[in-house]
Amino acid sequence: RSLRVAVIPGDGIGQEVMPEGLACLRAAAERYNIDLELDEQFKDWATCERYLETGSMLPEGWKEKLSTYDAIYFGAVGMPEKVPDHISLWGSLIQFRREFDQYISLRPCKLMPGIPCPLSNKKIGDIDFWVVRENTEGEYSSIGGKMFPNTSREFVVQDTIMTRTGVDRVLKYAFELSNSRPKKHLTSATKSNGISISMPYWDERVLEMSKSYQDVKVDKYHIDILTAWFVLRPELFDVVVGSNLFGDILSDLGPACTGSIGIAPSGNINPEGDWPSLFEPVHGSAPDIAGKGIANPVGMIWAGQMMLEHFGFKDAADTMMRSIEIALESGGENIRTPDIGGKGTCQSLGSHIASLISKI
Amino acid sequence: RSLRVAVIPGDGIGQEVMPEGLACLRAAAERYNIDLELDEQFKDWATCERYLETGSMLPEGWKEKLSTYDAIYFGAVGMPEKVPDHISLWGSLIQFRREFDQYISLRPCKLMPGIPCPLSNKKIGDIDFWVVRENTEGEYSSIGGKMFPNTSREFVVQDTIMTRTGVDRVLKYAFELSNSRPKKHLTSATKSNGISISMPYWDERVLEMSKSYQDVKVDKYHIDILTAWFVLRPELFDVVVGSNLFGDILSDLGPACTGSIGIAPSGNINPEGDWPSLFEPVHGSAPDIAGKGIANPVGMIWAGQMMLEHFGFKDAADTMMRSIEIALESGGENIRTPDIGGKGTCQSLGSHIASLISKI
Ligand SMILES: CC(C)[C@H](C(=O)O)[C@@H](O)C(=O)O
Ligand SMILES: CC(C)[C@H](C(=O)O)[C@@H](O)C(=O)O
After folding, report:
1. Which CATH superfamily is domain A117-258 in?
2. If contacts are CB pairs under 8 Å, which of residues 137-156 in chain B contact chain A?
3. Which stretches make up the Isopropylmalate dehydrogenase-like domain (chains A, B) (predicted)?
4. What is the mean pLDDT of each run of 10 residues along chain A (360 residues)?
C-alpha cells in the first residue's frame, strides 16, 4: 500500500526537526516496504517569511494542490515578533483544520521512559490515554459581536455552536477508539451544571450514542473537576472526549501531566479520508531556540508514527514507537537533547532513533 | 467592630463540619473581642430535605431575610441520589451568587504543611497564589436555544456574554489584590487565539485596566497552556484572573495541584458590601462519608478564616491561619482525619484547631 505525504516544515524549529522526522519515516518505509512519497516541495509554505513577502501564508491554489495528498506532515508555525499568531496560525494550521474538515484532533497522554513526570509517584504504564477533541465548531465560532461600543454599556456576545452532525461524528470516533482498546472506557468532558444549553446537549448526544456501544463504559466529569483528576488520578482515563475548547485544554494539560508536552504529537484527522489529515508535534516554532540545532525532534518523529498508525501501517508504527522509547530510555548524554538532560543535538537524537528503526 | 453572619450548614457533611467552623470562629472572636453574631436559625435552609418536603430549597422571603446579614457562612449542598444537582445548586448556591451580586469568586491555591503535594519536588512556599473568578456572567448565561430539534440538522447556540461592567469590576478587584501583595504580579487567563470575539474583548479590558496599575506586572496565557503551567511551574503565579468558566476550571485545578482540594475554601464576594458575601469550603456534601463523623473540617474553618480576613479582622484571621497550619503540620494520628492519614474525627481535628486559636 502507498501513502502520499505533503511535507510542510514551517517556521523556526519546524525546519530543524522536520529532517529528523523524514529520516525516521524513510527508515520505517524501507524496512516495511511502504510505498511512501514524502513530497518536499512545500518548504516555504506556511512560513512567516512568505507572509512578510507576499501578504499571505499560503500561495493561491493551495487547497487544490494539497487535496491530492493523503496527509500533511507539518512542523510548526509562528514568528510572533514579526507576525501576530492569529495571522500565522489562522492563515495556515487553523485553515487546514477547517477547510480539510479535520474534525478530530487526537493526542496521546502517555508517560514515556526517560522523561521525568511532574506528578509524584507515577510510573510507566500508569498514564496512557488519548484525548479526542472536536476540532471544527463549538466554542470556536466567529459568530457574535459588540453592542454599545465605547460606552459604559458596552458588551460582547460570542456564540458557541454545537450541531448534531458535529457532535455525533466526534463522539462516534471516540466511541470507536474506546471500543478498540482493552479497557473500553470513555470519559466525556462536560459542564452541564453551569453552562445550561450547549453542555446538556452534549451530554444528551453522549447518552444517545452510548446506546450503540453497549460494551463501552462511559462516564462524565465536569471540566473543572476533570482537570483536577488529570493531576490527582490520571490512571483513571483511557479515552477522553471533549468539545473544541475543553479538548484544547485537556490536550495540553494531559501531556503536561506526563512531562511530555515538549515531545507529544497531535493528529488533525478527517477520518473518512475525503481530505488530507495533518500530523504535527504539539510544540510550536520555539523562536528562542531556533537555529541552535538543539530542538528535540521526538514530537516530530512521534507525529510521523501517529501518521503511519492512522493509515494502518501497524508494524512500522509499532517499531517507530519502540525506537522512540528505547532512545528516550537509554540514549546517552551525547545523544539526548538539552531539554531532556543531555548535551546532544536535534540531529544526534534524530539519527539515533532512525537507526533504531532500521535495526531493532 | 461587629459582624453579623447567617449560618447555613446545608446537606451531608455540611452539617458535620459546620459546628467545627463555628467553634473556631467563636474562639477567634473571643480572643480578639470581635462582636460576632453567628445566627444558626437557618439549619434547614438550602437542604435537599426541604426541597423534597416543600418543592423548593429556600423558604419564601429568603432574600429579604438574608439581606440583613454581612455574610453567609455556608456548608455544602447536594443529595444527588434524591435531588439532581442542577436543582439543589441552582436553587441555593448559584442563586445566592446571582441575586446577591457576588461577582467575585476568590480561592487560595496554597501548599499546606502536612498535606502531600501531588506534584513532585514542591515545598512549602513554592505554591501560594489566588484565583479570582468572574462569578456572574460570561460563559454561564442562559441565552441561546435549539434549532431544528429532533432532526439531523439540529443544532444549539449558547451565548457567552461579557459586559464592560462585569469584566472591569472583576479585573479591578484582581488588580487591587495584586497591588496589595509583595510580588504585584497578575496573570490573565485568555483564549484570544481561538475564541475570537469574547476573549479579545477580555484582553482589551485587561490592557486598559493595566494603565491604572503601573506597578502591577501583568501577563496573559491562553487557558490551554496555562493549565499546563499550573502543573509544571505553579511558582510562577501570584494572582490569576479568569472569566466565569476559566476561573471555575483554574480554581479546581489550582487546589488540586497543591493537594488541598479537600480542604480549600472559597469566597463568593460582593466587594461593595451592598449584599452579603458567602464563604464556603470547596468540597461538596460528600454523601458517601456523611454521617460517619470523619469529614475533614479544615475547608469549613479556612472559609471562616477568609471571612474574617475579608471583613478586616486581620489579627484574628492570621491566628486562625496559623492554627490551621500548626494542626496540619503537627496534629497527631488521633487528631488527623482519615483523608489526611489519621484515625481522628471531624471533631478531634476541629476542636484541636479551636484550642490552638485560643492559645497560640
Ligand atoms: C456547581 C457548579 C455550577 C459550580 C460552578 O461551576 O460555578 C461549582 O463548580 C463551583 O465552582 O462552585
Ligand atoms: C493556536 C490555537 C488556536 C490552537 C487551538 O486552540 O486550537 C492551539 O492551542 C492548538 O491546540 O492547536
Report:
1. Isopropylmalate Dehydrogenase (3.40.718.10)
2. 139-140, 142, 144-146, 151-156
3. 4-353
4. 96 98 98 98 97 97 98 96 90 94 98 95 95 96 95 97 98 98 98 94 98 98 97 97 98 96 96 98 95 97 98 98 97 96 97 97
